[in-house]
Design a protein that fits this description.
The chain is α/β, with parallel strands linked by helices. It has 15 helices and 14 strands. α2 (80-100) packs parallel to α3 (117-126), α7 (236-247) packs across α13 (355-367) and α11 packs across α14.
Length: 403
């Protein structure tokens, strides 16, 4: 089977971005299928290609995957209009590839929602099989956050969402809420599979080369956040907790925020203005180096803005990286991940908007290390039994093969 795989933010393990598509594509190749990955240049990603661009495009084989990279730079710091232009340009150029290339199945994964456009065209104009993976519910999430308020834009996005879902022969949702959201659009549950993000047990949890950033002592409790620093992440909650910890004199607890994004400069300035000496900001690092940092950490921070649409409608990579690393997870919003943390006793679910509760959870982690370590061990066990990426990848391959 020849699979034309679309992921605008595709990255190998060399990059600092999520690697779900790389792992899933590799498993398709291992199962005997040909995979062509169509992607664009992303700030934190690394497609594995090193040859020069020619006319805005470069291509070649990377670990058995044939990669076509379009020169359409994207960064989390880009404004809404610039992002929209990049999304649309990628969709248009990708559609031309779908119209000209030989393949059997189109697989497309969000975000953005426009990733489904080549699959729609392939389904209706070339009679190809189309499998659509939904990582976030659009336009529910941007609407709930107030990022998109124009009623005509929202209507257009709603139309694209419905057409994408109804054009796909099969769909994948990454969380229970996403699966329910797809079903609410009139899609039979028989055509939807939930395949969440998974744990890279071969990357995280290994001893690697443990390291800590400057200013964080071995005796400090180190709580890490890894990922985008955007509006959706609600990282002011971490700084609010840091201020509370500083007020309580707990200089032995450090918060390390790793990544990039549009609000990062403002967060850094706030830390300076409030003299939050217990916060460290780091640039995004490749997965292998990140694994070393995680192995030296004590708590993983799973943070999002308090938006109800997030509660069951997201499946953040970082949660799975944390439990794979054997870290207890501090989660600051309700939903399916908070439910998992409570059920398996593998972290600290705290209510949103309560910096005192956030700070007290970190204090407990520092003052009761045996309890913290046991939580991390239970999380690692959960990673192995329920969220092993290899097992989830087998489910993924079977689902795509049956389209």
């Amino acid at each position: 089977m020849r699979v034309l795989y679309y992921h605008q933010y595709f990255s190998t393990l060399k990059g600092a971005a999520g690697n779900r598509s790389y792992k899933m594509a590799r498993r398709l190749v291992e199962a005997g299928h040909e995979v062509t990955m169509v992607c664009a240049t992303a700030q934190r990603g690394d497609t594995g290609l090193t040859n020069a661009f020619r006319k805005g495009r470069r291509e070649g084989e990377v670990d058995g995957i044939y990669v076509i990279e379009l020169q359409l730079p994207y960064s989390n710091s880009d404004g809404f209009l610039k992002r929209t232009r990049t999304f649309l340009r990628f969709a248009v150029r990708s559609t031309f590839i779908a119209l000209r290339r030989d393949y059997d199945v189109v697989f497309a994964t969000t975000t953005p929602l426009t990733a489904g456009i080549p699959g729609i065209i392939a389904r209706w104009f070339r009679g190809k099989k189309f499998v659509f993976e939904v990582r976030d519910l659009w336009p529910e999430l941007p609407k709930a956050m107030g990022v998109i308020t124009n009623p005509f834009v929202l209507l257009a996005m709603r139309g694209l969402e419905i057409v994408s879902y109804r054009s796909a022969h099969r769909l994948i949702g990454l969380s229970p809420g996403i699966v329910e959201g797809i079903a609410r659009r009139g899609i039979s549950e028989q055509n939807i599979a939930m395949i969440p993000n998974g744990c890279d047990l071969d990357v995280f949890g290994e001893s690697g080369n443990p390291w800590r950033p400057s200013g964080v002592q071995r005796t400090d409790l180190m709580a890490v956040f890894t990922g985008a620093h955007g509006m959706a992440n609600g990282l002011d909650a971490a700084l609010d907790a840091a201020a509370e910890l500083q007020r309580l004199g707990r200089a032995d607890i450090k918060l390390v925020l790793i990544g990039d994004g549009r609000v990062k400069p403002r967060l850094q300035q706030r830390a300076v203005d409030e003299e939050l000496d217990n916060v460290r900001f780091l640039d995004a690092v490749p997965k292998e180096k990140l694994a070393g940092l995680m192995s030296a950490s004590d708590v993983g921070l799973q943070l999002l803005a308090d938006v109800p649409a997030f509660y069951y409608g997201t499946s953040p990579n970082k949660f799975f990286d944390y439990i794979a690393s054997g870290l207890p997870v501090l989660n600051n919003y309700p939903g399916w991940l908070a439910d998992i943390i409570s059920e398996y006793r593998c972290g600290y679910p705290v209510p949103p908007g309560e910096p005192a509760a956030f700070a007290q959870a970190l204090i407990r982690a520092a003052d009761f290390p045996d309890e913290r370590i046991a939580m991390g061990a239970r999380g690692r066990g959960l990673a192995e039994s329920e969220f092993n990426r290899d097992h989830l990848a087998d489910n993924f391959v079977s689902w795509v093969e049956g389209a």
